[in-house]
Amino acid sequence: MRKVWAAAVLAGALLLAGCGDPGSGGEAAPQDVPDAPRAARTERVPSAPPPSATSTTRQRIAGRPGTKVLYLGDSLAMENQDVLGAHLKDRLGARYRSAPYSGTTLCDYLEGTGKDSLVPAADKAAALVRAERPDYVVLQFWGNAWGYTPCMDGITYDKTREKYFDRYAADAKALVRQIDAAAGAGRTRIVWVLQGPDPITPDRVRRVNALYEARARASGGLVADAGKAVAPASARYTWAEKLPCTSYETRHPAYCTEAGRNLTALHRGDDYLHFCLAPTTAKSRPCPARSPGIRRMASAIAGAVAADLR
Question: I need a surface site. Which of 42, 46, 98, 304 has the fewest CB within 10 A?
Answer without folding.
Answer: 46
